[in-house]
Amino acid sequence: MLPRPRSSAAFAEAKRFIPGGVNSPVRAFRGVGGEPFFVQRASGSKIYDLDDRELLDFVGTWGPAILGHAPKVVLEAVADAASRGVSFGIPNALEVEMARTICAWVPSIEKVRMVNSGTEATMSCLRLARGFTGRDKVIKFEGCYHGHVDSLLVKAGSGALTHGQPDSAGVPAALAALTITLPFNDADALRSIFARDGKEIAAVIVEPVPANAGLYLPKPGFLELLRELCTEHGALLIFDEVMTGFRLAKGGYQEICGIRPDLTALGKVIGGGLPVGAFGGRADIMDYLSPDGPVYQAGTLSGNPLAMAAGLAQLQELERTDAYRKLERLGAQFEAGTREALLRAGKKFRFQRIGSMFCLYFTEGEVWNLEDAQRSDKAAFALYFHHCLDAGVYFAPSQFEAGFLSLAHTTADLEFAGHVVAGALAA
Ligand SMILES: *Cc1c(COP(=O)(O)O)cnc(C)c1O
Fold first, then answer.
1. By the 8 A CB rule, do 237 and 262 touch?
2. Whether residue 167 has pLDDT greater than 90
3. What pLDDT is attached to residue 163?
4. Half-sphere exposure (CA, 13 Å, Cβ side) for 121?
5. I want to staple 133 with a disulfide (CB 3.0 to 4.6 A). Which of 30, 40, 202, 227 is the partner?
6. Which of 263, 268, 400 to mutate to test the pocket of ligand 1 (most atoms within 8 A of CB)?
7. What is the whole-number distance in angstroms between the Cα of residue 94 and the centre of ligand 1?
């Protein structure tokens, strides 16, 4: 590991005042060892650390930076909005523009409410589903991460998984007991739980493409079965598209798979890098929300004008530039480079990709669920991660996180990454 004296000093200081020195656990690099670098600034596909090193970034602030870092359109939109005030706490037109855009892009969303994070979005979906159905139980899938919501920190992915805490302390057992967890892609397990508990299930929440335990895809028919069983038993289907929404297609993964969830949680790309989430769906369900309905939900900063302006600018740029076709091309190029590197190194590791999201699992077996993903060689991944970082390429500091491409990545960037990956795999 290359020394980073300024980052090290900053991290030592951070640890005095911030638990673990970070405001979100995965940033602490515990999954790979060593210490995190501190950012000086970021631009396009690059991050510059405090020690003046340039890093080619494949994390993209964990998904939001789909245009790259500090895109001009977003900076201008934020500056323009800020000149008229940074928060109102009373309706503003940008909120309506955002809501109209989301409803137009995501056909299953008839009404939408803005929140400040993906966690708030999934938490609110659950409360709404429980209020609407009058039932308490929810089903989630092992390795899926839906933010740090009490009911959903059961066999969760992302940082919870990296840190070996898929079940958090502090979640009342009585609450966790209402969460049923199942392996992803297991149709039989799904059928039998619905046969047993169908009448008590308020909702099933799922990342349609699970991307918080690496990245794996739904088997053909699995999400269709989920839709069918929910409809049959009067449970709501919640797609957590916080990561996949506006990243894989204008209408999220639901546009690609053609399945209509009852509710959808959104975040990340929708905020253009500002703290934003949203949840929406069937109008008859959304009308259960306060002030029209009995389910309470609120937010002092929800619909914040800077956040709306940043998000709208990002979404409009995606539409203007035919982004999803370009991202697929970049993804295919990155995949080709990685597969060539694997071949050259004589390694048969699993590389998985959809559009601009990817994961290289350090295992040779197929990966369709959390158990498969956990067969990866985490020690080998950690060595690979540090080799890449030292050579100037920043991948997510955990085997159980997806990687992201942005429109700012160039062909030259991807060629460079291919060389670095080849070197790291051969080392
Ligand atoms: C990141 C993420 C969340 C949580 O969003 P935050 O903004 O971090 O609260 C929820 N669900 C999925 C699928 C995510 O990837």
1. yes
2. no
3. 64
4. 34
5. 202
6. 268
7. 23
Neighbours of 59 (CB within 10 A): 18
Ligand 1 centre from 344 Cα, in Å?
A: 36
Q: Which atom of ligand 1 is nearest to the CA of 24?
A: 8
249 closest CA partner among 61, 77, 66? 66
Q: Tell me the average pLDDT across 150-157.
A: 84
The pLDDT value given to residue 360:
98
* Pairwise CA distance, residues 110 & 100, whole Å: 9
CATH number, residue 33: 3.90.1150.10
Tokens at 218, concatenated = 């739904």
- Is residue 235 located within the same domain as residue 298? yes
pLDDT of residue 125: 98
pTM across the whole model: 0.97
Residue 391 confidence (pLDDT): 98
What residue's CA is closest to ligand 1, atom 10? 146
d(CA 81, CA 299): 20
The atom of ligand 1 lying closest to the CA of 241 is 13
CB of 247 closer than 6 A to ligand 1? no
Q: Which residues constitute the domain of residue 185?
A: 72-319
Strand pairing partners for 140?
181
Nearest CA to ligand 1 atom 5: 118
The amino acid sitting at 140 is: K
29: left (phi over 0), alpha (psi -120 to 50) or beta: left
Same domain for 185 and 167, yes or no, is yes
For residue 215, what are its two tokens? 């990245």
Handedness of CA 166, 27, 357, 138 (dihedral sign): positive
Euclidean distance between CA atoms 254 and 261, whole angstroms: 8
Neighbours of 16 (CB within 10 A): 7
Instruction: List, in sequence order, the alpha helices (H) in 106-238.
Output: 118-133, 159-162, 173-176, 187-197, 222-233
Number of domains in the chain: 2
Question: What are the pLDDT digits (tens) for 298-356?
Answer: 999 999 999 999 999 999 999 999 999 999 999 999 999 999 999 999 999 999 999 99
Residues 258 and 127 in one domain: yes
Let me know: does 400 contact 370? Beta carbons within 8 Å. no
Q: Which residues are known to be catalytic?
A: 145, 240, 268
